[in-house]
Design a protein that fits this description.
The complex is a heterodimer of chains A (about 70) and B (about 400). Chain A is an all-beta fold and about 70 residues long. Chain A contains no helices and 8 strands. Chain A is globular and about 35 Å long. By secondary structure, chain B is mainly α. Chain B is about 70% helix and about 0% strand. A two-stranded antiparallel sheet of chain B has the order 1-2. In chain B, helix 4 packs across helix 16, helix 8 runs antiparallel to helix 18 and helix 10 packs parallel to helix 20. The chains are: A mainly beta (about 70), B mainly alpha (about 400). Chains A and B meet through strand 5 of A and helix 19 and helix 20 of B.
Chain lengths: ~70, ~400
Amino acid sequence: MAETDVIAPMVGKIIAVHVKPGDSIKENDPLVTLEAMKMEMPVPAPQAGTIKEVYVSEGDVVESDTILVTIE
Amino acid sequence: MQEFLRLLDKLVHMTGAANLTVGNFVMLAIGLGLIFLAIKRNLEPYELLPIGFGILLANLPLTRLMPENVAAVEVFKNGDFFGGIQQYGVLGVFYYFGLYYWNILPPLIFICIGAMTDFGPLIANPRMLLLGAAAQIGVFIAFFGALFLGFNLPEACSIGIIGGADGPTTIYTSAKLARHILPVTAAIAYIYMATVAFIQPPIMRLLTTKEERKIRMKQLRHVSKAEKVIFPAAGAVIIILLVPLSAPLIGMFMFGNLIRESGVVKRLTHAAQNELMNIVTIILMLCVGISMSAETMLKWETLKVLCLGLVAFAMGTAGGILLAKIMNFFSKNKINPLIGSAGVSAVPMAARMSQIVGQEEDPRNFLLMHAMGPNVAGVIGSAIAAGMFLTLMDAMGRV
């Protein structure tokens, strides 16, 4: 099955990570919660699958384009 | 003995309780209501909490915190400083000099807003300037509406500016043109900014189709440091050359942004974003609250301004959305019309609404950063609109 990288949609701070490697997820399940402009936004999964890798942890500041999670 | 009783009677009449009017009770309830909303609902607490407490103070009788008739206060006699304001204490002095006489608080807060603004999304996508401009349509509709409802020209300018959804700009314009309605316009501007979350989404849903709300926008390109430094400097020069009377606001706004982007004065940037912002917010918001006495607020005019403000706000929201839809006819890179509503300058509340309404339709659509483009353009737009009104009134000899 193809691997998909989920990238940060914008500059922001990771305030929660909801998945760990090995978790199986459905489409639109929240992967992490991103905070930008004092607003919290869930970053949902683009497809169903299994989490292969999580690259960020709580408190990280991410640029847009940063890879957050790989799904397979 | 009789002497003593007369004194006692006099003292009783000098208590605030003996002098409370029905209007005071109404305003006290409004003040408490705002404090409640700020604390319990976390609704724009930085504005509503000090405004609410200011209203309480303003409606407790006999405090001499504020002159009953600001216009009649004589501070200068025969060109010499006379000091007629001192007896009114700290809030009276802040109000008189900060807003009424010098009008320095709004420009000061613009330094702070500039230092907190990232023009990146606007520089990456300059056509967003058009959306920021389109949202100013609300300003002009409210302006003509106010004239129609019998307000005079300077009052209509001050009321129109509410449609820009920018508190400091509204205060600045009113303090220059129509000081007697400043408490009304300021209060209503802040009330609508606090309720953006209720006013905008229904209009946004009404004017867009499901497909439009689902449009995903191309990720913004990277903006270089040089671009970010040049923008405020060049922007200030160009705008002030075109509309000189926007200089007090635009000049401070762009200065604040320049110190931020220059990167060489970190202490100044930090101070503008934190200490200065907080100090000016406290003083400015208390001043707005303290000006809201029952006599100034509880009038028919206030109700008219409330309606005009709502129309202005709704039209501004609609203007941005509709222009975005029109622009989509001519461009390959489609714009999600939901970001058009962020052209009203309530930063970043209006941009948050674009994000929220967009994500309702498509959870993987992130419009926040795209919406910041029109949002910051809206701040520039309403400051320019204010400058244009000031120029118009100056040309007509009404300042």
